[in-house]
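Build the 3D complex.
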Amino acid sequence: MDVTQLLTRLYSDEGRQDPYPCYAGLHELGPVSPVPARAEHRSVAAVAVGYDLVGQVLRDPEWYKQPPPGWQEQEVLRTLQTSMMFVNPPDHTRMRAVFAKTFTPRRLGALEPAVHRVVDGLLDRMADAGETGFDFVAEFAYPMPALVMAEFIGIPAGELDFYRQRVERIDEFLDVAGKTPQRLAAANTAAAELRDFYADLIAHRRRQPGEDLISGLVEAVDSGDVGLSADELVSNLIVLFNAAFVTTVYMFSNGLPLLLAHPDVAAALPGDDALARGTVDEILRLEAPVHFLARAAPRDTELGGVPVAGDENVLLIIAAANRDPARFPEPDRFDPRRPGPPSLAFGVGLHFCLGAAVSRLEGRLALPKLLARFPRLAVAEPPAYSGSLFLRGIDKLLVHTGGEAA
Ligand code: HEM
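Done.
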């Protein structure tokens, strides 16, 4: 198949459910393939799947993130485009520095007891659900990062349902196939509501500061010592939670079937911290929650021999790069003890995921506890995937516990 056929297949329902055969087909064509001028997928000049090449573009600060046309007129796009995730240096450097200062090892260390508390509470609920089947996503994968992030950022737990619905509307719009006028309108309303929500929360924390991230950031912004406006603070908080939430849900929901399909690993996980770390990274390599990134060329150039005109976008499929046979022998095999380069699941370069350590901590602590308490945990039905390639993951996963460990 040529690149146009492979992309058409990838965007079909079938491709969205299982994109990996399309990625293998793209690897056969080479590390980067030009998209022909008249192809329906010409919104990008080329598609890159080679691990080294994708990393090369992401590490090169000259390749940049292009804002969508007309972003100033849409509340949701205006919010995104005033956050570190979507801007380029020097604004990116300025905003990221403020947040990077608050993601200290001390704050991460302080989060550990909260992660344990959240995991234990959720496992108790799973035990109460008994041995009958229940949805692992609803009972564990979803609430786990939501509760941890609420604690980390400082969102009252009672507000989480309101918050979650707005986040979902923004994520639905961000999917490549999600940009309908209805979804845009829903995402605009959601962004406006989240802005109001944070404005209230910030005012509250200003009056009554706590130990959370918002209190720390409000104090820094009010002192005038950091280069972040009040408007940018709100945008960045919205994007931070969005970036932290569904990605980590999918780390758990995509990871569990992989783990249960390898009973030797699942059994060895409790009590083996090195294995737990390797397992989290291998889950993210094989079943990356984020599949697509894009960067625009700073000028007329070439990438792996493929010409790219200045300001044209290249699609960077990090989930395909993570299965590059040139870098990961037997790329489809789950092997948590595999040596080799780090995967690109958290990106690399300037925009490397700011919260990678938070998700890794959640996974490393939660998965061993889950399997220690429910050693006979089993998947009851084939999982249902989200159908999005922007954020790909299992939305529903029926399991039964098989009872608690003796
Ligand atoms: C398994 C879970 C996660 C995955 C797979 C993931 C993935 C990614 C990826 C691929 C990027 C790079 C985007 C780009 O280059 O365009 C990114 C950026 C980012 N992530 Fe994560 N992420 C996860 C969890 C988190 C968490 C828990 C947080 C917050 C606590 C977070 C906050 C961010 C932020 C703020 C950025 C933007 C950084 C910048 O632009 O400088 N992420 N993430």
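Residues 61-290+345-400 form a domain with the Cytochrome p450 fold (CATH 1.10.630.10).
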